[in-house]
Amino acid sequence: MDELKNLKLQLIEEVENNKDELIDFCAKLIQIPSVNPPGDTTEITTFIEDYLNEVNIPYDKYESAEKMFNLVASIGNGKGKELVYCGHTDVVPVGDLSKWEFNPFSGEVKDGWMLGRGASDMKAGLAGIIFATKMLKKLNIELPGKLTLAIVPDEETGGEFGVPWLLERGYVSGDGCLIAEPSSPLNPTIGQKGSYWFELEVRGEPGHGSLSPLAGRNAIVDAIRAINEIRTLWDIEIDIPVDVQPLIEVSQKYMREVEKDRLKYQEVLEKITVNIGTIGGGTKSNVIPDYCKVHIDCRLPFGITQEKVTEILENKLDALHIDYTINRFGFKSVANYTTAEDPVCKSIVDNISFVTGKEAYGVMQWASSDARHFRQHDIPVLQYGPAYLPSIHGYNEKVLVEDIVRCAKVYITAAIDFLYQK
Fold it and tell me: Boundaries of each Peptidase M20 dimerisation domain copy (predicted)?
């Protein structure tokens, strides 16, 4: 054990001594626009290939859709367990440029912050797992088993051509996985809510606006009635399964004591959340609209299935006697988790404490990610990565440089613990 501890201390020192390379690598990833949509990862994939080639890390490259590239790279002797480190190269659009205080693709470091789109979600984490793997290779560390990088192009729009594409074809497997998605410094996410995204299409009868509401049937008005019913999904009391109640409780403790600005959000872990995301319909103000489309994002807690939500929705909307259709799209999953006692969770949590000297524990995520796909393929998984959480998907995205370095230290030491465990 002392031998492994000394090796980990040596690796922490190597990360510290080479942190300028890590930060420069992260900056260059941010400087390459890889916005999804459209999802063209050609340039950033080529850049990562060149970085892996510097130390001759072998990899396979798969184009899962036009200009969407997956990289699968591995090191180790292959004679033991396999640990997967996963990250996505795509980022969400930048939105209104006038609302940014800096160039979203600058990759600038200022006052201890790495700036730019993807800094927190998740090019800093991506840089960390690639850098840690490269350091292990460069230092000729004899790893039992295999450490695999799964670098995917398509997470921000649902991930169809990234993680699930690789898993379904058997290009990636493993005994445990770490996704370098954003998290808090001491609390990786070991569970997540389910996702239920859908489009509500309401149809009406057109007519002259001057005769409304006596003429025609207003699809927008019917859609408003439907929306009011859909929002009542929040009010449903759901029985949380006994086996996940400890995870819910520790996650609520985290929201009370760590991310205290999340205190008011504790209920979301046990409720169906409902976001009315977009709405559109009609042709002009003096025409009774004959259609309305609404996009809605619901997140599901443990204790309810996709099918049950569909049944509830249809019962509510049928009672309105409107002409409607529900079309599913985007994320589709039920709540899922990996036990805190699983070796991959223990390896990450123990090494967060080893690196920081502070107590760490896993919590639940109220959103969704690629983790669900690994669990569907019976691969235990958790998420841990550098982030300034309030900036994710927003303007002026950023992350602390010290957090990037800390996470890289955790990645490199956790790989040692996981792969050397019998």
Answer: 190-322
